[in-house]
Amino acid sequence: MKKQAKFGIGIGIIVVSMASLAWLGYGESKTYYHTLAELDTLKGVATKQHMRVGGTVQAGSIHRMTGRVDFVLEGEGKVLPVSYVGADPAAPPAGAVGMDHEVFASDVVTVRQGQTLELVNSSRWAHTIGPGQYGHIVDASNVPIAGYHLMETNSVYTTGKWNTPGTYYLTCSVHNLMTIKVVVTACTCCSNGSCK
Q1: Is 190 contained in some domain?
Q2: Would 166 be classed as within a structural domain?
Q3: pLDDT digits (tens, 9 = 90+) for 134-174
Q4: Residue 56, exposed/middle/buried by CB under 10 A (0-12, 13-18, 19+)?
Q5: For residue 129, what are the domain limits?
Q6: Most buried of 115, 134, 158, 186 (most Cβ within 10 A)?
Q7: What is the mean pLDDT of residues 168-183?
Q8: What's this model's pTM, rounded to 2 decimal places?
């Protein structure tokens, strides 16, 4: 009987310890979302929580330095200077299309018929990419991207094969000036219209 009691107490201690650690981990991993106007109302512990702040990056306010980017968020009649400190995102590999804040790394990309296109978010900002122009994502039957794709920092997305020669556009629904022209050239290397 003594062995069973000791075993039960030991199991109880382990279960309580695991539950406590899980609860603490859950609390520390929470992210709170606030607007610029709400920041002035935060007090006490609320100012120390992990948070994300909504707003628009003020035009011309982005200043890059090694390991740091300074910019100004604006919204609701308020402004907030921000200094992001951290490692720069990785550069996109050769042949991939990179992204920066509000722009693709290139205005035009050429793809041969039958090939895919690799997109890499090499910026610190999230992008929502899909077929369309000037921030308006549309259904496009010949664009091998269904709907839209959320791309966080360092995300990689490879489209399906571009099978129909022509000119197409990809855009970011978050950054309306972020559009890239995709020119698909006809395959002439083989008879089936699918370059390798």
Answers
A1: no
A2: yes
A3: 988 888 888 998 788 888 888 899 999 999 999 999 999 98
A4: exposed
A5: 97-185
A6: 115
A7: 92
A8: 0.58
Looking only at the bridges linking them, the beta strands covering 136-137 and 149-151 are unpaired
Q: Which CATH number covers residue 173?
A: 2.60.40.420
Q: Count structural domains, the chain.
A: 1
CA-closest candidate to residue 76, choices 117, 18, 121, 35: 35
User: Which residue type does 182 have?
Assistant: V
**Tens of pLDDT along 75-116?**
888 888 888 777 667 777 778 898 888 889 889 999 999 999
Instruction: Confirm whether 132 is domain-assigned.
Output: yes
**Residue-by-residue DSSP string for 43-70:** -GGGGGS-EEEE-EEPTT--EEETTEEE
Task: Grade residue 54 by pLDDT with cuts at 50, 70 and 90.
Answer: confident
Rg (CA), the chain: 24
Burial of 161 (0-12, 13-18, 19+ CB in 10 A): middle
Instruction: Please list the residues that pair with 179 across neighbouring strands.
Output: 171
